[in-house]
User: What shape does this take?
Amino acid sequence: MAFVLITSSLFIVILSSLGLLLMKILTRKPLKKLNENTYWGPGERPKTLDTTIREFEIEVPKEVLEDLQWRLDRLRPLIPPLEGIQQQYGMNTNLLKVVIDYWKNKYNWTERQNYLNQFPQFKTNIQGLDIHYLHVKPQNPCNKKVLPLLILHGWPGSVREFYSMIPILTTPTEDREFVFEVIAPHIPGYGFSQAAAKPGLNPAEIAVIMKNLMNRLGFKKFYCQGGDFGAIILQSLCILYPENVLGFHTNMASIQTPMAYIKYFLGVLYPNWVTRPEHRMRIYPLSRSFKRRLRETGYLHIQATKPDTIGVALTDSPAGLLAYILEKFTTGTNSAWQAREDGGLLEAWNYTDLLDNVMIYWITGSATTSFRLYAETFNDENLKEGLLRHPLQVPTAIARYTRDFYVADSIIDELFPNNVYLSDIDGGHFAAFQLPEVFANDVFCAVDKFEKININK
Assistant: This one.
């Protein structure tokens, strides 16, 4: 009997402690004002920083390409997949061999470098870091209103995701009153943007950099669009600087509040209270959703805890980097493609498009520095700040893609009380890359609603 009492008491203490810890993490804190001049570059902050805007073109040294070819030519024998297994254990090495062969023998970097240089590119130093960005203006706006749009990628993406969408966003049409001027930066530590030399560059701090970038370009007010980490960074920007944001379109709304979790759990008893009947399978049963999330976030746990360790392997091995990134384009676009020998990759893209994105990571050596954003995001200090548990005051629009992260109707008001446009679209996680026309049209529809609100203010 004593053993039962002691065990029960211990269980209650542990449960209470976990509850208090969870509430501490999830409790909304007052907004913390960030230093807009924090220096993230190497060494001591110089007395003056170069604030000029410099034209930029991708030009990869011959030695880098020769080294890549050397490494691909000397690839060690790959371990064959298990019998009857496609992509369920990660990227199937039979498929990987096909893509590597294409990379070695058919992928033409000279041609692709010209393709990647088709849009005007620039660099400018923000808080000690050279930030790379595309800046594409409409060639012939035809008396249409030109609106600044900041678009931001995530991991394992890059600005390459937007190349097919940018001409749509920047080309006027008769049926629309406006057209966009697009600014598409690489996140610090990704692609051609310089990585932080000091710890602490989390999404909120990057939001400060993005606001400073837009201000330097002359935009005090602007629209923004983000998915994946781009969504998290721009959601942070909307919370910190609502006076600068005219409207926010996201294809990955993040809502992690105590009430949201409570509703999801109570929805086990009555799912229709939480979500539409046709969306029930996207949440329930919770056990299936939890298993799926656990299965597909192994990379997150590694990158959030030991980014530099995994970074060594993927900075040294092009085949390893290729497998690591392409596996996400299979599972992130359609989890059912894990049961296909080809991973479904050619259903949404071609190997050239996918290799463009991989090449950006390879030639810039940005695997490790891109991973570090996870460590800066999912550490105790950043989580306890709870910035993303503050409601957004700006007009918002949420695009829910069928095979991507889902936010239920009943919890949207928790953090998006001014959501004016909600769309449900068939597609996956890399929506701008996969469905550029559909994605661009959704952005136009959202901003049309934002414009009507802003005009009436």
About this structure: The longest strand covers residues 129-136. Strands lie at 53-56, 121-126, 129-136, 145-152, 178-185, 222-226, 245-250, 396-401, 419-425.
